[in-house]
């Protein structure tokens, strides 16, 4: 018997978009909402195996693990390999707050040469290379919902949202991708 709840993918096998922008559900991942002061950043970085970013709109990534800067003392950690991020955090003695949000969030991947246009159809953030380069991350809005947007590659974006809002976000992104492909 499992010691945790089975998580079903909220979007199933959905996919959509256009030749220029593909929209697909991301594979399952573990996620951690992390809060810590400056004095704990070094210890936490060592424990998680990547340097927690300290500047707005930045991220750090190592082997499928990402730390996205959300505020002066706040990060969203994502592990695409399903590592026990909460277990790692619980072994750190430095003062911090960690909450497993794997059950709350899901992600939608938007990729292709028109990916930025697809996202921009419902998001006010400037996604130009000079303002939002590869590695940039920000909390923003998509339509009427809050999301965390992460630019993981030149033509690749990860849109993190609450599971309950994922069908809405997915629909907006597919429509944006179709429009961007015209």
Describe what you observe in this structure.
With 182 residues, the chain is of the alpha+beta class. It is 21% helix and 35% strand. The chain is built from four helices and eleven strands. It has helices at 38-48, 85-90, 115-120, 166-180; strands at residues 16-17, 22-25, 30-36, 59-62, 65-71, 74-79, 96-100, 105-111, 137-142, 145-153, 156-162. A six-stranded antiparallel β-sheet has the order 1-2-8-11-10-9. Strands 4-5-6-3-7 form a five-stranded antiparallel β-sheet. A hairpin with a 2-residue loop joins strand 9 (137-142) and strand 10. The chain is elongated and about 55 Å long. It starts with 15 loop residues before the first strand and ends with a helix. The mean pLDDT is 92.
Order of helices and strands: EEEHEEEHEEHEEEH
Low-pLDDT parts are none
Structural class: alpha+beta
Query: What's the total number of strands?
Result: 11
Distance between the termini: 50 Å
Shape: elongated
